[in-house]
Amino acid sequence: MPIVQVEMLKGRTLEQKRALAQKVTEAIVETANCPKEAVKIIIREMDFENFSQAGVLKCDE
Amino acid sequence: MPIVQVEMLKGRTLEQKRALAQKVTEAIVETANCPKEAVKIIIREMDFENFSQAGVLKCDE
Amino acid sequence: MPIVQVEMLKGRTLEQKRALAQKVTEAIVETANCPKEAVKIIIREMDFENFSQAGVLKCDE
Amino acid sequence: MPIVQVEMLKGRTLEQKRALAQKVTEAIVETANCPKEAVKIIIREMDFENFSQAGVLKCDE
Amino acid sequence: MPIVQVEMLKGRTLEQKRALAQKVTEAIVETANCPKEAVKIIIREMDFENFSQAGVLKCDE
Amino acid sequence: MPIVQVEMLKGRTLEQKRALAQKVTEAIVETANCPKEAVKIIIREMDFENFSQAGVLKCDE
């Protein structure tokens, strides 16, 4: 039943997301001891003007 | 003051969202015992390449 | 596949949560057109010192 | 290490987001006692048909 | 209507949370151009065994 | 910069969380192409009365 949310900047390819979904699911199954079918992953992509670190937007870095 | 977030795949019509907002609000008011005005709902829609179950992206199913 | 998160102040009884889970699930099924089994609800309860409105913590109101 | 998520309706300019990132970061640093570099802010913008209050979508108000 | 979630490690005092709620609200009002009453803040506190950076739990650092 | 949130039922040991943090971080680094230091993981544990599937609380299953 683990629900995983991955928040990251835009720009990953479909191929990368596909690999991410597979590998993160495996990591959860292996360590949290749950069936593969129970793992759900939500990927959220952020625009560069919607993330800041140390008070500076990513698009301004 | 309940804040409700509904995460679902893209594809619902405005009419469905309208009904969802109304019915979920009623369900919260009735069971959590709070005024209607206090219930806020955020709907988040996911692309089919941004959700995976059992390690497989929705767009690959 | 809708995943619902309900954020609310502490204090609801188990009976209220039970009703909330049932009614909100029904509302989602009816309006988002998905099977009952697909609806997951996470309830998050907040302490009164962890929520503020208009800049004032709930515990100070 | 504070991670801040700001959920708001669409329509703010880049200039407003820039100011928000800076001022909210300062507010966190000052009150939570942490280094500026540790503060991350995610801005999430909602469409008017994806937010409801009192059971009514923003786009219908 | 901005809803702000602040995720941070446990250990802040009530006084710090009070100041945080006030200052962050002011920062949002000033930059996002909205009434004070509309700003809601949820503070979420994490245990040191529930946060990791670079693959290492905070409690193991 | 990926921020990962893992929502799961209570009951995992510290050892399991430690392994989860490590393995999930590795999975993200490998597939999203980012430095290890950039990956942050938040683990959220739910009580059995705060999660429902198909309208039934976990504690009632």
Short description:
Six copies of one chain form a homohexamer. Chain A is α+β, with helices and mostly antiparallel strands. The first copy, chain A, contains one helix and four strands, in the order E-H-E-E-E.
| Share of residues in strands of chain A | 25-35%
- Give the CATH level 1 class of chain A: Alpha Beta
**Number of helix segments of chain A?**
1
SS class of chain A: alpha+beta
Distance between the ends of chain A: 38 Å
Helix and strand sequence of chain A? EHEEE
Radius of gyration of chain A: 14 Å
* CATH topological fold name of chain A: Macrophage Migration Inhibitory Factor
CATH architectural grouping of chain A: 2-Layer Sandwich
Average per-residue pLDDT of chain A, rounded, comes to: 97
Proportion of residues in helical segments of chain A: 25-40%
Regarding quaternary structure, how should these chains be classified? homohexamer
The major sheet of chain A is characterized as:
2 strands, parallel
Largest interface, C-beta closer than 8 angstroms, per-chain residues: A-F, 25 and 25 residues
Please specify the SSE layout and strand pairing:
The structure is a homohexamer of 61-residue chains.
Chain A: E1 3-9, H1 14-32, E2 40-46, E3 51-53, E4 56-57
